[in-house]
Fold this protein.
Amino acid sequence: MNKTKEKLAELGSSIIAGVKKGKQPRIEIPVRALSNVVYNEKTKTLELGNKTAERLFFNVGHTKKFVQTIEVAKVAKQLLDLEKHASLRDVFYMAKRTLPGTNINLVDEQTESDKAIEDLELITDFSREQLNINANKNGSVAGHVMIEDKGDTIDWSKLGSGGWSIPSNVEEIKFRKVDAKYIIYMEKAAVWERLHEDKFWDKYSCIIMSSQGQTTRGIRRLLQRLNQEHTLPVYVLADFDPYGFYIYSVLKFGSINLAHISERQALPEAKFLGITADDIEKYGLKKHFITLKDVDISRLKQIADYDWFKKNKLWQRQFKMMKDFGSKAEIQALSARGITFISDTYLPEKIKNKDWIE
Amino acid sequence: MNKTKEKLAELGSSIIAGVKKGKQPRIEIPVRALSNVVYNEKTKTLELGNKTAERLFFNVGHTKKFVQTIEVAKVAKQLLDLEKHASLRDVFYMAKRTLPGTNINLVDEQTESDKAIEDLELITDFSREQLNINANKNGSVAGHVMIEDKGDTIDWSKLGSGGWSIPSNVEEIKFRKVDAKYIIYMEKAAVWERLHEDKFWDKYSCIIMSSQGQTTRGIRRLLQRLNQEHTLPVYVLADFDPYGFYIYSVLKFGSINLAHISERQALPEAKFLGITADDIEKYGLKKHFITLKDVDISRLKQIADYDWFKKNKLWQRQFKMMKDFGSKAEIQALSARGITFISDTYLPEKIKNKDWIE
């Protein structure tokens, strides 16, 4: 925590020192644009390239962004001093004010403060969670895991039908006991409830984690910490759907938007556990096909063109089969085979046979 | 649980008995349409009227729906026998199959099985949660409450920064100890994290509960059970926004769609804690106004016309003020006054002064 405050203080001091020497205030920031995003074959994650840009105070095109960046740095410093966390929306309101003697607002839209916060991540090399700025909260987790958080000891195996609610910020959680062989992450809370009711995590000694809708940064970071600190493989259970593939892609390689913090978010060893084109044949899911829409087809094309999928024959085969089928299929289609088919047969078979795609 | 199974068995037996007597299979179902939705001034909830319709097997317009209703009854019976729960999507796949010797599917779209399930709720007078069919899972809760669920004892005050993740089905939860004076429900998970970090529930002896996005049936039912079984008032903390008012309206009175289970969902005593038009003056939030869009204005008009708001002068005043402002404002705008302003000042003042709208 102290390192974060130090870094922010340093940023302030360096600007003041410059001003005292009669130099104009400036900040150097790596360029965050597709043109500066590189796929690192070695680490298998998206990374920012070397291009940087200077933000100058005495440049009418830069002034506003310069001031916004300094302002969110001030807000982050306040939060760290108070030992409080704020959401992106809170930070927007905390930064929003009219400059005295003018009718100019420091920020008018949240996108402006959001961008300034992303810049601050780049400048300080700390994630916004470390700057006490939180993303959205979402998701549940269960398994034989004991954690310590805010002075409480929490047993993820003793939380009834609900499970532990994943916070937006998991940086300060301490893992006390992790008794699991792997993690299954699924995008659908309903599938999580299925596996949870069947005590899948207990029978197969694993952790089950889900979001509802988008995978939040809190979830990604929790998966990553368990993967790195406890060498647990992460299996992604998603639909046979361009959107399911996209969820996997973002989890594994990072996103273009957040390439600057890939190292704090990506899971280069994540495996796609299904649904695959082969599952559709094997488990007779063709009768539950859903026709691809135009938006699906264009997303599929886009994903197939990603650098990190381009040379991957296994994935290109999946993409081609989906295109040929002209159809997608959902995890829940397995329920047609019986409500516990996924827990009793599908997942145990897939995992036993290492039937995943990387 | 046994009562639910009995009721489903009864439904089956009565149809078979009719067939054996040479009568055509038929089910009587209350009409679910706005024309049969009544606002009950006494219970202050939306209710279904007395109109019923017959669904006949030998009527080409009815046959499919008749068979679908019986099919989901079969699925519910299976789930109850297995002591397993399924999501709406699961039930769709469990009911989906092609009738032998034809190319007709029993259901083609989830909306069909969803409607059949709602009909089954009406026919059996059990909620779909009692039929072991779950809605979506969402939301978190914290407070000095001990519950028992699936053999686990869970203390809502000892779950770190995450809280307890609310399951989709809360019918079988047992409250062991409830040490709280009221419940604050908020639509935004970020606001929940704010109050949770400030230990608001501990300082003011209350329960804090949130969703992210829509209020799920699990959340509504949990609020209702705490309200009814432990006489806890429920305060709704939402934006000064037609959508915030709508969230309150649905929580308090029930929704037109689900009027048939209002008694299991509505919270006729819920109070709107803010943000109100008066808060905007009092706490200087005008500078954080957001201009109403066309969709906001038409939603506001629609809400103002609801039977249950029409004669309510306090609410009509709020609606008028919003229209005159031409603007809305968010809870998080309070953060401009300091990150803990909501916990330290706003909420304590509002609650102390009983400054809410009913």
